[in-house]
Amino acid sequence: MKLSQYYIPTLREAPRDAENVSAQLMMRSGMVRKVASGLYSFLPLGMRVLKNVEEIIREEMNGIGALEVWLPHIQPKELWEETGRWGVYGKELLRIKDRKNSEFCFAPTAEEVITDLVRKDVKSYRQLPITLYQFGAKFRDEIRPRFGVMRAREFYMKDAYSFHADETDASNYYEKAFEAYGKIFKKCGLKFWPVQAESGAIGGSFSHEFMVLAETGEDEIVSCSNGCGYAANRERAAVEYGREVKSEDLCLRCKEKGKESPLRFSRGIEVGHTFKLGAKYSQAMQATYLDDAGKSHPFVMGCYGIGVSRVVAAAIEQSYDANGIIWPREIAPFQVILVPINFEEPKTKEWSLEIERELTQRGVSVLLDDRSERAGVKFKDADLIGAPIRVTIGEKGIQNGTVEVKERAGETVIHVRKEEILTHLIERI
RNA sequence: CGGGAUGUGGUGUAACGGUAGCACGCGUGCUUUGGGAGCAUGUAGUCCGAGUUCGAAUCUCGGCAUCCCGACCA
User: Fold this and answer.
1) Which residue in A229, A235, A327, A378 has the fewest CB atoms around it within 10 Å?
2) Residue A429: how many CA atoms within 13 Å on its side-chain side?
3) Class of A3-321 per CATH?
4) Is the overall model pTM greater than 0.80, yes or no?
């Protein structure tokens, strides 16, 4: 990919209304643009990262037998009335009327629609279990959108719903989904923590939030300072303790074993949430199957969400420096950025195009900065965009038969002979 | 929803009630070319609507938008 033909409108300064680091860097690096409060356009660079995260999620979901579907973003009021949520969801549910004055909402989640789908087509225990998932926009008319795409009104989400014959099967599947989530966030290069959580508006009996650890996170996590494994969000902890927890409180689990471990408080960004829903929705919507004795039961359900656009922001929040983003390899928009110092110099051009071609053939994503900008501008943009590896091609090196390789995360510059550049880079990617 | 603040080119900002200016960006030309170049020349703005005034970016009222604190939030 040649930068001169791409669309990466980088900014020297961040707009004043970009509050946190990830919002500023996503604006500056030309990944997103703000359209209105809580509404963002993703530009090509932002899309590449979003799609990388999406692909990692898709692979793992398929890996646990989930099937991809596509549900409408606009959903009829009638389905939401069946579960009573049309009334309880409040102003966050964005409601609209069509030309016939029928009422609809923009989907903030899809339990109603998916349960309606499955109850019509799945009738027998023989067809269970089944898990369906989708990627799509979700709308929540937040009171106060903030932190860029982190708390947007419209955002990109993966939501999955599983249907089971009984509680045991649902629990087993919950474990599988929980494991898959761990793999997903690990692959995305994130430092994260699963914590016990209260279920909120989605409801159900049991849930975990996946928190990316970050100082700037909006959520508070309570955990055991001795690492016994206890971790919960603040609301959940308050339920367990029967009151607000304080820093001098002791870990309840350790206390049972006669140990005294103080609680620790950290901050995180919620990127995923898994729920055991039980029969909350299937009962309300009379979604049932017949068992082997011909008896009718409501489905036992689970649901599993990941905020894809939020994962992108969280990754930045966890990895940046004064010059810009430092992408984890797996989700980087480009794995390598080629910076020819003077692209129009014949030898430099020849080397640049050759390296670009060869890397591309090997399946490495490459951005070639073929603009006639000065070196400083190119280096600044390269740092801002944050590709894990930068290869500089300049006349100094060419005289010695070498190019320069520098990792975005480090300081070291290595001189590599041009013949060896391919194997050198492939090893590092 | 309660409290507070702010709206000036694409971005960041300046202007006592009296000529809307600066920097960056963007366009063009020339010179440059290893960490956000120089010169020349262009481009583009007072959130919207009323009112006060000889005259409003500036004062008043209304609307809209954005941001901050709180409550809310998968």
Assistant:
1) A229
2) 22
3) alpha beta
4) yes
